[in-house]
Every structure is written in C-alpha cells, then in structure tokens.
Automatic annotation (TrEMBL):
It is a single-pass type II membrane protein. The keyword Glycosyltransferase does not apply. Residues 99-310 form the Peptidase S26 domain. This is Signal peptidase I. The gene is lepB. It comes from Ramlibacter aurantiacus.
Amino acid sequence: MPALTAAVLAAFVAYAGAWYLGYIEGNFALLLFTATVVTGCYWVAERLWFLPRRRRAAQRLEAQAAERRERLATQGIQSSDAGDVSIGRERLLMQPWWLDWTAGLFPVILVVFVLRSFLFEPFKIPSGSMIPTLLVGDLILVNKFTYGLRMPVFNTKITEGRTPERGDVVVFRYPPKPSLDYIKRVVALPGDEVSYLNKRLFINGQPVERQPVADFFDRESMRYGKQFEEHLGGKDFRILIDPQRPAFIPGAEDFPSRDACRYTVEGVTCKVPPGHYFVMGDNRDNSLDSRYWGFVPDRNIVGKAFFIWMNFADLGRIGGFE
C-alpha cells in the first residue's frame, strides 16, 4: 500500500504541475471530485480494516507484556517494562504516512468539495471587463444554489432553483471553450430581442434607463472614463462607455444561432434563443461578451456572483454588489 499510495499522490502532483505549467488544460472540479473519492476510499479502509488491525496488534502486545509480567512474578521478579509497552502501543496505533496523506485529509477535502460544489465557490477577477462593478484582483463568492444545484463534473441539474434575471452578475463556462470561467452581467433573457446600438441598450424595443454620473478614475491606467448608472431588472449598477471607440462590433465570431443576430455599423440586434442568455460586461467597450461570441446556454451557468470577500490592494471593497 505505501508504494501504491506514493504512485497515486505522485499522479496528483504531476497533474497539478502540468496544469500549472500549461502543458495540459486542467479541470479543478474533476481533480477535487477524484481526490474526494480516492481519500474517501482510504478513509473507509482505515476505519474498517487498517485501524482495527493496528488495535488488535496493540492488544496482542499488551497481552504478551501482561503474560510476561505474570511469569516473572511467579519467579519473584518485578518487571519494569511498562514504559516500553506504552511506547510500543503508541507506535502500533500511529497512522502511517500514507494514511495521513489520504484518509487523514478526507474530512477537509470532503468539506471543500461540498462547499464548492453545492454552496459557494470563490473566483478571482482576472480582467477589467466588469469595471466599475468589479476590479482586477477582486476575490468574489459565487452562489451555486440560487439557479439550482448541479452535479459536480457532470453538470446535471438536481434542483431547479430560479432562473437568472436581467441585471444578475453570473459566472458561466465560456461557450467557445467551456473549461474557462467567465463573468458578465445578464442583460437579456430567452425570447428577448436585445439591441446594443450606438452604445445604448434596448430590450424588446425599449431603451434601458440610464443617466450620467461622475467620471470613473481607473487607478491601473491612471485615466478617467465616462460612467453611467443603468437600471435593469430592478437593479441599479454603473457602466463605463468610451466615446472614442466605434459603435460597430468588430470581429464577431461564427457562433451557434448567429443568424438570430443582425450586425450593422450601429451595433448589433439579437433574438435570444430558448434556454440561452445574452450577457455583457459593465465595461462596455472593453468586454469580450455575447456581442462577439454569442449566447450563454443555461447548462453553462455556474452561479450568481454576489460578494467581494477580499481585495488585497483595497480592503474597502469587501462587501456585496449588484
């Protein structure tokens, strides 16, 4: 078992190392699920087989020591090996290293697996597409049960939950490459006609209410940006518009249901297919979103982002957001 366990642990380290160095495309959900299953098997084996064996060995040692003391006592000799027996018993009961690194870690890995798979998952904001709502370096929590629980790895829904609403900030699997997680704001629901024309958002022909607010200062670029407050789906949030950028959408990909979209020099108009959502970044002119690669299927949605739990550069950002 030590050799087998060493091989298993080496395989995990090799997978993580190859993923970190970019040699393979990793899947953390699969890695965590596999680690839970493997350490769980060791934990069960420890409880049902290895620990009882060690206890029986310790009992045999104590029985042998007691028998030896009795024989010596009949000869009038007082034995003084109680300390040695105690040390030997502790050594026999001690969990070997290969169980420490498997069965010993199972409770922690199980808690992480349950929390991450069914309750909350942490993410780090890698880009500025959601400025000013979310900044680069924000560490956020995503609620994974609001839209219904899903089986980890297989992504099959096991509870319904509610459907995403306009204005929700969601994390989802990037449709062109599902191994990547993206974060954007839902702006249109299944069946909606959504237009982004001349940098104004329209839902079913009606302009989305917005008003200008004070310019946003980006500390990364040391520049000011035009900022507006938009009202969508009962939520108020701020967006950035760059008046120097053109209104047309350059480089739109050939995505599924692209024929439901019409591209012009003014922007784009799309009819959202059933079971799909149209998402955009709050940093409207610096966001690779549904305007470029299409609609987000419901099955790709991971959860609703709702809380900044840390930003090491600015602790004042900790808190909830819309």
